[in-house]
Records
---
Amino acid sequence: MLHITDLVVRYGSAVALDGVSLNVGRGEMVALVGPNGAGKSTLINTVSGLLKPASGSVVVEGTVAQVPEGRQMFPDMSVEDNLLLGGWSIRNRQLDEVFDLLPDLAGMRRRKAGRLSGGQQQMVAIGRALMARPDLLAIDELSLGLAPIVVDELAEHLRYLNTERGTAVLLVEQEVTLAFNLCARACVLEAGRVVVTGPSSELAESDAVRKAYFGDL
Ligand code: ATP
């Protein structure tokens, strides 16, 4: 449902993505990993339409919603109002559905988003993206700055969402173990190019990935 072909994205004369191709199937979860500056955020931002490619194409069959890096709450607005910013036309019906999917949010709906913990804010950011009833959820850094136990809980919610609703996920994630556990398939990006794409279980065993990300060998 997501087809990225020969994508080139530049910032001025600097090439951030240099011929990237990647597909995400309907209902599939794909991890995007790679070192700092590899181009992961650039790819996510191009998929969600925030950046325009210099060449190549991004075709999405359906709706994409993004969970941005660093969560990007409106801190003085309530949780509910932050969620409502994520949906436009079908807001109130969709709000109930998001509260069904992420029940913790219902209990904190009137609280100011800026007063919540990082993990709670990430849940609001995911809920806000779900307000658009996306077919593809593009997540830029799920675990950033969060305690492992909180990350496990968020990962469970994503698994549930994927299984129950068939929402596809493209996950940019620094924590390679988490990324590979959550997503059956993964893509390793380095310096704007795809190094390898394949089943996460195979990638986790590959020499290149073990050396680069687990400090083995
Ligand atoms: P990180 O894991 O550190 O977030 P990343 O893989 O998401 O890194 P990007 O943020 O996509 O990488 O950056 C890819 C390249 O593009 C880097 O060389 C970066 O310096 C450059 N870049 C990113 N944003 C801009 C910008 N707004 N203007 C100019 N160059 C940029």
---
Amino acid sequence: FAKRSGRNNFKFYTENMNSKFMKNLDLENKMRQALKNEEFYLEYQPQVNTVTKKIISCEALIRWKSPEFGTISPDDFIRIAEDSGLIIPITRWILEKVFYEIKKVIEIDPNIYISINISGYQIKHSNLPKMIEDVLDQEKIDLKHIELELTESMLMDDILKNAEIMSKLKDLNIKLAIDDFGTGYSSLSYLKKFPIDKLKIDKSFIDGITTNEEDKVIVKTIISMAHNLGFKVIAEGVETKEQFDFLKTYNCDEIQGYYFSKPVSIEKIMEYLEENTFNTNLMNSYYNPIH
Ligand code: C2E
Ligand code: MG
Ligand code: MG
Ligand code: MG
């Protein structure tokens, strides 16, 4: 598959950049303060079953609203958090927050789970299974309600070690997904070495599925290959009915994107779950501000 992350890297240095933010030489301290001052918060984006349109899970996405810089995209600050090692306490904070909030959500839907993004730095430089067990001592939950998203490129970095960490996570009953699938250079035979539950097809492929022949073929191929390997497949960044219909035709299991909902507060997720399903009629007026 084509390597597309280069495009994102370019974006990082241009349009996404809040120059006042990027020029600040004291970012690490600012971020450390932000963690203390509770300037970070989480939003959640539904992952919806393509056939039933019921919410299966939600992805937790970090937000930073700084009094000094305004709203900063995670695409910008996560990288700095990784470079400074601050991603480790930030991830710990995310785990604590999600373990706490999931308890309220389970009361509405006992099968729901929440996906948490884990960066490569975290896997490399910390003991993630241990961190999870520590957080569990504080916030007792059943870990079947947690999924971790690891990117494809990060897994290929050290296949043996990562496979070992993943099997430890699986022993804790955690679900595992491969994020941004198609943007790294993974070999299919290696994918089988990892105890993966789900592949998330990167948005850059979904963007083209109604217009670009190559993207159509790639997406169809990823779906059938994933199913052959026993993984579920979710498409990221689905925005239109045409994209949804294509993915449904080719048996993509789940959908995540503005078509159903932007990332929202946990309270909003609970409202969605009370409704139990994305009613396509309601969606236009209530669920989805862009339609
Ligand atoms: P990701 O994990 O691939 O998350 C999906 C991104 O696509 C999110 O951007 C989400 O808001 C956006 N998205 C979802 N559906 C649509 C759509 O239909 N249209 C469009 N245009 N965008 C859509 P977000 O929240 O800005 O996050 C960007 C990236 O930052 C994430 O990509 C992830 O790599 C990283 N990130 C976000 N939160 C965390 C976190 O808590 N920890 C770590 N380590 N990384 C995070
Ligand atoms: Mg993700
Ligand atoms: Mg992704
Ligand atoms: Mg991404």
---
Amino acid sequence: AESPEASVKPKRCLELPGDEGRMAVSLASDLEDALATQKHIFLEYQPQVDLRTGRIFGAEALLRWQHPFLGRVAPPIVVALADDIEEIDRLGLHVLSLACRQRKRWRDVLPDDFVIAVNVSPKQLMNREFYRNVVDILDREHLPPSLLELEITESTMLLPDIEAIENLKNLRKIGVKVALDDFGMGHTSLHYLRELPLDTVKIDRSLADVSPGSVNEHIVKSIAELSGTLNLSLVVEGVENERQLSRLSALGCGRFQGYFFSRPLSADVCLEFVLAANRENRFAA
Ligand code: C2E
Ligand code: MG
Ligand code: MG
Ligand code: MG
């Protein structure tokens, strides 16, 4: 089945009656409105499971924009749009605040070390103020830094950017975790593993399909070994079925995120899911 957000493709938005330019302008101003009113923008949370401990150890916060008449707009579109209208910092900080606030609300009900992961776009990371802004949000929301993980994606802009690396280094110094998202596709290079200050590597979901003898199998096995050597936590994204899961486990992967375990959920449903799964030892070997 298709996810709800997958049904609103960027093309569909732009192909609506009216010329493309007008549509783009209106989407941009709708996003401005949504940011100003803080309505229609919210987060869903997708649990992350460690099969070695049988526990759900964290959740990734995912941006949702429920457009008043277009329905859900896919997050990469929202991010690109925010980029275009120079609102990426505002959007990004709003997302961070929401995620930190939610994690704080869960303080007494979730395990002490349950981490909330938040996606950060390269542009945000390259802003000199980013470190200060994150510290301010953690202070404001009274959240221990070690409960926040920032997910960054490999990007051609990122590596030469001194500001981005400084921001990450300073954030890690105070205990914030850093994950490299979508590893194994796009601009992937081992260079990133060496140059970026990291805690976690997330294998892209295009690699979750590891049939025996496939190239994917070799790639995933190598990444699993390498992450072990480099002392990085490894998470595989996009696990959709048991077959994928057992093959990935055999290759040395222990932590997973994907529809097989759970789709992204509203905060309340996510909490219920985590509590029930941990109570029932649902994912214990
Ligand atoms: P991502 O960070 O790699 O997040 C994982 C995406 O894969 C999510 O899509 C999630 O719903 C989807 N997914 C999870 N498990 C499965 C599975 O088993 N099968 C399939 N087919 N998909 C699965 P979503 O929520 O549509 O987000 C797409 C991308 O948008 C994210 O990819 C991330 O790059 C970006 N994004 C989302 N929220 C934010 C945000 O707050 N800020 C920024 N800068 N980017 C965001
Ligand atoms: Mg991510
Ligand atoms: Mg990813
Ligand atoms: Mg992605």
